[in-house]
Specification:
Helix 2 packs parallel to helix 4. The radius of gyration is 25 Å and the shape is globular. With about 450 residues, the protein is of the alpha+beta class. It folds into 3 domains: about 70 residues; about 200 residues, Sandwich (Jelly Rolls); about 150 residues, Exo-inulinase, domain 1 (Jelly Rolls). Helix content is about 20%, strand content about 40%.
């Protein structure tokens, strides 16, 4: 407290202004780092009870202490990791990256570092999204009427997610991980804080989910399991849908594969494993879970509100009346984004009605506000295939008379290095470019107003 008094007198908020007081906060982080004697819990107690910007100060100090002490240092005191199971909320214009987990971020850092150094990278379990290879990592999985833990799978040298359940329970047991915002209340909470949680679902209808499940042990009974999808309904409540089912006897393992059903454009909130039947209290092990392929989904106005939360707002005004998507942007180019980096070859279609625009269109392989391909119409009566990547480039173009207030059917396909642009059912442009291999979709506008009722995405 004496040190904090000295810090406050010399570097206090009254002397270094700003909405985020960098100099005082930095001093407080150093203070807590030094006075904690290397104890993770003690460092967070000091930095939070001081009362200055407790969110960023404790987060930054927690990162430093994690680097200093490793996982053992974090795990030496209270259970900091268990309550959120590695789940991370990330503010990003990369629309599918807003909901993720610490292990996935770690893999991205490791992969990038090895690539920079020219070193080979062998991802765990053939690159599965959920692999549980890091000790204690839950990758967002939480148990509902069951207990989950990261542990070695018996009789193997691989780690997995143990799902332990009781036979006498009357409610369903599931182990689920988020792929989108978990509730309307969560979305509204972040909006009220001024930090909107903008993200798209990581998983969509039409993609293929695969998982590996093991049932080790000497029990004489079998257990039936199934993939489970948590999906928002018309009342913004999560309803669980059962996917492909499998039955495992003693010491058996299997792979389950399931194409994600059509949920009529309502966003998927979570995915996981459901225990369908078991005569005894038992455990199964989720070895890995992954998905692949491009989606087959139609998007537009639905009942409830969560459908509208699935779009990332990169424009000045984004409304859902009178049209499904009313988009206004005052300066430069704005995007309203949906989708994920793992989409590769697909076709996106949308009705677009421009009003007083410089440019308007649809984008594909979008990786943020400054990385995408787009099919656009311009106010100087051109139709163009363009690339935004380290600058704006026109890949192909042709004359096209733009009529403001008229509705156009945009159709953009990306397959390999081939880009195909069509308007109102007529192919107008075709080009080749290999700069961007994957990404989501977006509605694009440059200075003006536009409206769209429906967007569809399907494999190319």
């Amino acid at each position: 407290r004496k040190t904090f008094s000295l810090l406050k007198n010399q570097y206090g908020y009254d002397k270094y202004g700003g909405n985020c007081h960098i100099v005082p906060n930095h001093g407080l982080i150093i203070l807590a780092f030094l006075h904690s004697n290397g104890d993770f819990a003690e460092s967070l107690k000091i930095v939070n009870t001081a009362g200055w910007d407790t969110d960023c100060n404790s987060g930054n100090l927690g990162c430093l202490m994690g680097i200093r002490n490793g996982l053992k240092g974090i795990d030496s005191g209270p259970d900091w990791r268990g309550p959120f199971g590695d789940t991370c909320y990330v503010p990003t214009a990369d629309s599918g990256g807003g909901i993720t987990d610490a292990a996935t971020i770690t893999r991205r850092l490791v992969r990038t570092t090895r690539k920079l150094h020219g070193s080979p990278d062998t991802p765990p379990k053939q690159g599965a999204r959920f692999h549980f290879s890091y000790p204690g990592s839950m990758q967002g999985f939480q148990g509902e009427n069951c207990r989950v833990e990261n542990t070695l799978i018996p009789n193997t040298d691989q780690r997995g997610l143990r799902i332990q359940f009781d036979s006498d329970q009357t409610t369903c047991a599931r182990a689920m991980t988020p792929v989108f915002v978990d509730s309307l209340e969560t979305a509204q909470y972040f909006e009220g804080r001024g930090y909107g949680l903008m993200t798209s679902p990581m998983l969509n209808s039409g993609q293929t989910v695969t998982c590996k499940v093991a049932h080790p042990g000497d029990t004489s009974t079998s257990v039936s399991v199934a993939l489970s999808f948590g999906v928002f309904d018309e009342q913004d409540q999560v309803v669980y849908h059962r996917g492909q089912e499998a039955t495992l006897g003693s010491n058996e393992s299997c792979s389950i594969e399931c194409k994600v059903p059509d949920f009529d454009g309502y966003p998927i909130s979570s995915i996981g494993i459901e225990i369908v039947r078991s005569d005894t209290s038992d455990s199964i092990y989720l070895d890995s879970l992954d998905w692949s392929g491009s989606p087959s989904v139609s998007l537009g106005r639905r009942k409830g509100r969560m459908w509208s939360k699935a779009w990332v707002n990169g424009v000045d005004s984004f409304w859902f009346w009178a049209e499904s998507f009313r988009i206004i942007h005052n300066t430069g180019t704005g995007l309203v984004l949906y989708g994920n980096r793992d989409w590769t070859d697909y076709r996106v279609r949308a009705d677009v009605r421009p009003h007083l625009v410089n440019q308007v269109g649809v984008a594909c392989r979008v990786q943020g506000m400054k990385r995408y391909y787009a099919l656009i119409l311009t106010k100087d009566n051109r139709v163009q295939l363009v690339r935004e990547l380290d600058g704006f480039s026109v890949i192909a173009e042709a004359p096209f008379e733009l009529s403001l207030g008229k509705m156009y059917e945009f159709d953009l396909t990306a397959s390999g290095s081939t880009l195909i642009g069509a308007i109102d059912g007529e192919e107008l442009l075709r080009a080749n470019d290999s700069s961007l291999a994957q990404g989501g979709i977006a509605l694009l506008i440059n200075e003006g107003r536009t409206a769209t009722q429906a967007v569809s995405i399907e494999p190319a």
